[in-house]
Design brief:
Blueprint (H helix, E strand, L loop, with lengths): L7 E12 L5 H24 L2 E13 L2 H4 L4 E3 L3 E3 L3 H9 L14 H9 L10 E9 L25 H8 L16 E7 L3 E2 L2 E2 L9 E5 L11 H13 L1
Parallel strand pairs: 1-2, 1-5, 5-6, 6-9
Antiparallel strand pairs: 2-3, 2-4, 7-8
Helix pairs in contact: 1-3, 1-6
């Protein structure tokens, strides 16, 4: 699809997967300060690359640790269409509770990511578009099923291990796929620590197709990542 000037029009679905523990205060506050302009910033960034966004939907998933928070470990919203539902999106960001959460590492980031993968994604048909998942965490992820038996952890909702999760990510048969992710239009954007922390690591995701990773300092709340870098990476992923 293109407009009269020949520019491509796009449908963008973006899911923000956010570590909601106390150390993440710096980046969460940055996002809260800019939440009202976030949609416009993404749209303008896409326009600068010659792509016109005619549908932008965002969803928020925040996570901590089932071992500590139990049933309160992961929260998720529906998709909000921007700008029409900007007030609901702002409320979801402002409503992220980090007080008295966390305190140790790792966290249940892989489970939150899998919930994001299973979102009710737009079916593009012949339209251009992207399914983008943005993960922001300053902690390493617990292994899948590591919190099986903890309050609120439903083991049947998640893959048995990272190999199964990777296989699901790489599915290319849309009709028989586990998720609604588009086989060629899915993107994963990571803002996570490099290396292994407490025997756990995000590095096992960095070889996944259509995945980019920006390293952050562990336990520093992404204080070394500014808002503009996040927007730039989202736009880049929406264009490639």
């Amino acid at each position: 699809m293109a407009d009269l000037q020949g520019q491509q029009t796009y449908k963008l679905d973006i899911v923000f997967v956010i570590d909601a523990t106390g150390s993440m205060t710096p980046i969460i506050e940055k996002v809260r300060e800019r939440v009202l302009s976030l949609g416009d910033d993404i749209v303008k960034g896409m326009e600068s690359e010659g792509k016109i966004v005619n549908q932008l939907r965002v969803r928020v998933i925040d996570f901590a640790d089932f071992g500590q928070e139990g049933e309160d470990a992961i929260h998720s919203t529906e998709f909000f269409t921007l700008p029409d539902e900007l007030d609901k999106f702002q409320a979801s960001i402002n409503g992220i509770n980090i007080e008295n959460r966390g305190g140790d590492i790792p966290e249940n980031g892989l489970e939150a990511l899998f919930i994001a993968m299973n979102s009710d994604w737009t079916r593009f048909g012949s339209d251009n578009g992207r399914h983008i998942i943005v993960v922001m965490s300053d902690a390493s992820p617990l292994n899948l099923q590591e919190r099986d038996g903890c309050a609120g952890y439903q083991s049947d909702l998640y893959p048995k291990d990272i190999a199964e999760m990777e296989q699901i990510w790489h599915e290319d048969d849309a009709q028989n796929a586990v998720t609604k992710l588009h086989p060629r239009k899915k993107r994963l954007v990571l803002f996570v620590p490099d290396g292994t922390i407490a025997g756990h690591s995000w590095d096992q995701l960095k070889g996944w197709e259509n995945t980019t990773s920006t390293p952050v300092d562990a336990a520093k709340g992404l204080e070394d990542i500014n808002y503009d870098i996040i927007i730039k990476e989202i736009v880049r992923s929406g264009c490639v």
